[in-house]
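Re: calcium ion structure - here you go.
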Amino acid sequence: MEINDDVILSFLKRRHYKQLQPLAALIDMDGTLYDSMGNHADAWHRLATELGITATREEFFMYEGRTGASTLNILFNRAYGRDATSEEIEQFYARKALYFTQMPSVKPMPGAMQMLDFFKEVNMRRVLVTGSGQRSLIDRLERDFPGAFTLDMMVTSRDVKCGKPHPEPFIKAMEMARVRPSQAIAIENAPLGVKSAFDAGAFTVAVTTGPIPREELVKAGAAIVFDSMPQCAEMLPQLVFKMFSLSIS
Ligand code: CA
């Protein structure tokens, strides 16, 4: 597979950048590094059902990237016409997190390690950008991807006022990596995450790893969409090389 120059050039035009200089990779966790979205959807669906709120398992794939509070507010507004109180958020998000930990163990996404190894090899800074606040996964990162991230290079739900799709998480990640938007590449699997990264100004690579159709990712602002993480990992060297070498005058 050959990456078309136009992928880069049309992004430059759309963003009014002259050139890209990818120095940092801002990387989503659930559905990108971990095959965890099915478990999240199941845990949310179980909670909603227990609360007597009608919901489909599939809708939770579309909410992916939102903070727990934001997902609870969607459910509460549908059922009761109001936001959840902070006590309700604390209680129900804790219950959802508990259900998640009781589910079958989540596996690293095939290709994720290869992708992170590439970023390390070319000395790109890595920042984890996740809407999750679930320690169970964050704690596993060092075990599953040794040396890929340091603790001071992680944006979690605890570090932002506004979660994805708001650009704040990716803006914060750029600050941590000390890069400008034209120096950042974001890796995402969900429309809300793609929108957050695109609005922050990053060149956004989307990967379809679940039931979300690629058109949704393009609509959200993805510069390029890969069909799997192994494909993404394989194509990244070529993509990063082209990002460095193409420019518009
Ligand atoms: Ca995700």
